[in-house]
Design a protein that fits this description.
globular; 391 residues; alpha+beta; three-stranded antiparallel sheet; 14 helices
Length: 391
C-alpha cells in the first residue's frame, strides 16, 4: 500500500497516486492504482481499496525477484522523474544491479548477497574510452549503492519487504582515504585569457566561432554545458540571459533528437545579467549566423550550433584539449569552466547570494558546500576582527 505525491495539481489540490498490491489466487502479482486529488481524499481511497482487496491480499509479495522489482520500479520512477535522471537511474540498475542480483527473491536476500555484490562492483573495469581497463570510479560505485538503496526503499514502501536489508551494509569506502579524490580545477582570469585567445586564433568558419562563443559563455555566465547547448537567440534579450532549458546529448527523444528538458532544479530556471564583453561577442556571433543563413535564420537557432542542432559533446572536448595544449595550460573538464566562473567571483569578493543565483544552485548552502575552501576568511582572521572590537 502507498500514497505517493505527484507534481500535478487541480483546483489547488495535489494529485496523489494510491496503490494496493496483492497476489491473486494463481500466485500472480497484481497491483491496483487510483489517482485522487487531495491528501485526505487519497488516504480515504487507500482505506477503501484495502477493504475492497483485503481478501485478495496475501503476504507473498516478497517472493518477487529483484528483476521483477526493477521492472515495476521503472514504470513508477518514470512518472515522477525527469527523463534524463530516470534513464540514468535505470541504466545503473540494469548495468550494476540486475546482472548480479536480478534472479534473487526479495525475501531471500542476505547481507552476504550484498557483500558479494559490492566485491563484484569493486572489481569492475571501464570497458571503453581513453581510460579503458581502469577501475570504475568511487563515485560510480557509490552511485550504484545509492540507486540500489532507492530501489529497496521502494520495495519497503510497497510493503514487499518490511525493512531495507541494504541499510546493514555500508556504502563503498575510499580505500585511499581521500588521496584519490580530484581537487576542483579551474582557470584563473589570466589563464582563461590565454585559453580563449588561442580559441579565437582558430576562428575561420562559423563552426569555429561556435566554440569560441561556447567557452566564453561558460566562463562569463557559469552555465552548465547542457544549459549552454539549449540556448537560443530567443533566450537573450539585451544584457539578460534567460535560462529555461537544458539538453542532454546522451538521452534522445522519440524522434532521435537530443533530449531537451527544464534545467536541473527549479532554482536553475533563472535570468542573469550578461557582462558587456560577452554582449559584444554574442551580438557579433548572431550577425554571423544571420549572414550565413539569411533566408532561414530565426530566433530559435541555437546560439552555439548550426540551426536547431547544438555543437556536439565530443567536438567540444576535442577543442577544449586542443586550446589548452596550445595555450600551455593544464587540461580541465568542461564543468570546470563553471567552477572558474564561481572562483573568479569569489576571489573578487562578490556576495555569495549573487553567485548562488548566477549558478542556479538550489540553495546558498549548496554554493558554500561546493566552494567553501575558496573563501579566504580563516580562524585567525576571524580572531583578528574580534580582537579589534573595543567595548
Amino acid at each position: 500500500m502507498s500514497v505517493t505525491k505527484t507534481n500535478k495539481k487541480k483546483d489547488g489540490k495535489q494529485l496523489y497516486r494510491v496503490r494496493v498490491n496483492y497476489t491473486d489466487a494463481n500466485g500472480e502479482y497484481q497491483q491496483v492504482e487510483r489517482s485522487v486529488y487531495g491528501f485526505a481524499e487519497a488516504n480515504a481511497k487507500e482505506q477503501e481499496l484495502i477493504a475492497e482487496y483485503k481478501d485478495k491480499r496475501v503476504t507473498s509479495n516478497s517472493r518477487i525477484t529483484v528483476k521483477q522489482l526493477i521492472d515495476e520500479y521503472e514504470k513508477s520512477h518514470s512518472q515522477d522523474t525527469k527523463k534524463g535522471a530516470h534513464d540514468t537511474t535505470m541504466r545503473t540498475l540494469r548495468l550494476r544491479v540486475e546482472p548480479y542480483l536480478g534472479g534473487k527473491r526479495l525475501d531471500k536476500l542476505t547481507p552476504k548477497d550484498f557483500e558479494n555484490w559490492k566485491t563484484t562492483i569493486n572489481q569492475q573495469k571501464l570497458s571503453k574510452g581513453k581510460n579503458k581497463g581502469e577501475s570504475i570510479s568511487l563515485r560510480t560505485k557509490r552511485n550504484a549503492y545509492k540507486t540500489l538503496m532507492s530501489l529497496l526503499n521502494y520495495a519497503v514502501t510497497m510493503e514487499y519487504i518490511s525493512t531495507n536489508p541494504l541499510k546493514r551494509i555500508g556504502t563503498f569506502k575510499d580505500v585511499n582515504q581521500g588521496s584519490s579524490k580530484k581537487e576542483m580545477q579551474y582557470y584563473t582570469d589570466e589563464q582563461f585569457k590565454r585559453f580563449i585567445n588561442v580559441a579565437k586564433k582558430h576562428c575561420k568558419t562559423i563552426d569555429d566561432w561556435n566554440y569560441y562563443v561556447f567557452f566564453n559563455i561558460l566562463f562569463f555566465m557559469g552555465l552548465r554545458k547542457g544549459e549552454c547547448y539549449a540556448l537560443t537567440w530567443r533566450d537573450i534579450e539585451g544584457n539578460v540571459m534567460h535560462i529555461r532549458r537544458s539538453i542532454s546529448q546522451k538521452v534522445k527523444d522519440n524522434n532521435g533528437n537530443d533530449y531537451e528538458d527544464t534545467p536541473k532544479t527549479n532554482k536553475s530556471i533563472r535570468d542573469i545579467l550578461i557582462p558587456d564583453q560577452l554582449v559584444t561577442i554574442l551580438n557579433a556571433h548572431k550577425k554571423r549566423q544571420q549572414e550565413a543563413a539569411p533566408e532561414h535564420f530565426n530566433e530559435d537557432f541555437k546560439v552555439c550550433g548550426i540551426g536547431n542542432r547544438a555543437i556536439r559533446d565530443t567536438s567540444v572536448e576535442n577543442h577544449n584539449q586542443q586550446f589548452a595544449k596550445e595555450a600551455k595550460l593544464p587540461h580541465i573538464r568542461i564543468h570546470d569552466f563553471r567552477h572558474s566562473h564561481a572562483t573568479f567571483l569569489i576571489n573578487n569578493n562578490v556576495n555569495v547570494v549573487a553567485i548562488s543565483k548566477r549558478l542556479g544552485h538550489s540553495s546558498i548552502t549548496e554554493t558554500l558546500n561546493t566552494y567553501s575552501h575558496l573563501y579566504k576568511t580563516s580562524e585567525q582572521e576571524a580572531l583578528n576582527v574580534l580582537n579589534g572590537l573595543k567595548i
